[in-house]
Model the fold of this input.
Amino acid sequence: MTEFSGKVALVTGTSGIGLATAIRLAAQGAKVVACGNDTNANKTFDHLATERGLSMAARTCDVSVEAEVAEAVRDVVSRHGGLDIVVNAAAVHPFGTVLDTSFETWNRCLAVNVGSIYLTGRFGIPEMIKRGAGSIVNISSVQGHSCQQNVAAYVATKGAIHALTRAMALDHAGSKVRVNSVSPGSVRTPLLSLAARTYGGDGVSEEEAFSRFGAAHPIGRIGEPEEVAELVAYLASDRAGFITGSDFRIDGGLTAGIGVK
Done:
């Protein structure tokens, strides 16, 4: 018997933290369906499922579109008989101030990063209630607590995730649906690769940029997706049965101090 045996999970985001979380949950017995806009994810998930003997699959889905998320939830329930866990890891990360971020980009960032959480909750929570309980884990960021420059749209969504997490936790505690968020620091993901290309500088390799980002964390390195997935799995599990409405920083000490030395 493994920890998530008999549990069914929906994960948004099919790379980075989403992929690592899908693997972590499936490795402990969950039936996992992940959705995102990467059309190659199906091959990756099918390969992992076959190679490791895991119940995990991916489907193409724009997580900001109501009809597509509704269909994704119906698909999960049809395949596996219900829904117990939702992990919202899908995100976009535009750079820019409010002066040079287009309204289209602003709206897209809000729709993906926050709107997808609303949609998976809207369609997923009723299915959890049918099962008698459920757990939702939203991936936020330390940038929802404090931020760097030139990321106005992104940090607005991450702060919104913290607030929405609290609201959902209070609204659905009586139905035994727990809702928490996780706020990573710099983690080796496609979004961090984008940051490396944006801020790394000419002639600086991705790994050199990662090393520089890691040096800003007291622990001296960037995090790995699997480390975040461990925390997500704990919050999704029955071991965290008394935890709801909370945010958990996993940031190598990044936000523990101040800049003055």
Remarks:
- The radius of gyration is 18 Å.
